[in-house]
Specification:
The complex is a heterodimer of chains A (109) and B (114). With 109 residues, chain A is mostly beta strands. Helix content of chain A is 0%, strand content 57%. Chain A contains no helices and eleven strands. In chain A, strands 2, 4, 5, 9, 10 and 11 form a six-stranded mixed β-sheet that branches. Chain A starts with a strand and ends with a strand. Chain B is mostly beta strands and 114 residues long. Chain B is globular. Chain B contains no helices and eleven strands. Classes of the chains: A mainly beta (109), B mainly beta (114). Chains A and B meet through β5, β9 and β10 of A and β10 of B.
């Protein structure tokens, strides 16, 4: 079967750095997405990786290793507004999006 | 403003009721999706429409009936639902299905079945 694993919950301190990991086993690979979802709101697109390496977008970076079936989302200079759930999703060989259950990130002052 | 709107935002219905969820996208996209989101579970893809044609139906019970009259509008018709159908129903759109385009989500309809 196809599977996406990410931690259920993480806690970090305002101003610090946090890394949210995602491992996947899918039938084929056509890209990996990270989305942010604040409580009661729509998921919003953060990043897309299809080649190995690091993609940087301001305070957020996303890394991919296809050989290891692994990605992480790195959030720097954490702000209280970064408290949200972070969803990892992989496009399989049929371009179907397989979703993880999300990581709830709690930021403390 | 995500460009994808959903109505209603909240819905409480009895098991014998019939109701419809509406989604509209203002992004000029050609693909639209219905997802079910339950607490602490991955998003469950229900239906996909690409250029108004249904391309995915992920073994969804017949008490959920989608309708896509044009590329900008998507409906989910509900009838004789069960309490376990209570969840957040999210609509999304993308440039096309079957490619690696990001999806844009609406705010969802919080459905409670009593």
């Amino acid at each position: 079967g196809q599977n996406i694993d990410q931690p259920t919950e993480m806690t970090a301190t305002e101003g610090a750095i946090v890394q949210i990991n995602c491992t996947y086993q899918t039938s084929g690979f056509n890209g990996l997405f990270w989305y942010q979802q604040h409580a009661g709101e729509a998921p919003t697109f953060l990043s897309y990786n299809v080649l190995d390496g690091l993609e940087e977008k301001g305070r957020f970076s996303s890394f991919l290793s296809r050989s290891k079936g692994y990605s992480y989302l790195l959030l720097k200079e954490l702000q209280m507004k970064d408290s949200a759930s972070y969803l990892c999703a992989v496009k399989d060989s049929n371009y179907q999006l397989i979703w993880g259950a999300g990581t709830k990130l709690i930021i403390k002052p | 403003e995500t460009g994808v709107t959903q109505t209603p935002r909240h819905l409480v219905m009895g098991m014998t009721n019939k109701k419809s969820l509406k989604c509209e996208q203002h992004l000029g996209h050609n693909a639209m999706y219905w997802y079910k989101q339950s607490a602490k579970k991955p998003l469950e893809l229900m239906f996909v429409y690409n250029f108004k044609e249904q391309t995915e139906n992920n073994s969804v019970p017949s008490r959920f009936s989608p309708e896509c009259p044009n590329s900008s509008h998507l409906f989910l018709h509900l009838h004789t639902l069960q309490p376990e159908d209570s969840a957040l129903y999210l609509c999304a759109s993308s440039q096309e299905a079957g490619e690696s385009y990001e999806q844009y989500f609406g705010p969802g309809t919080r459905l409670t079945v009593t």
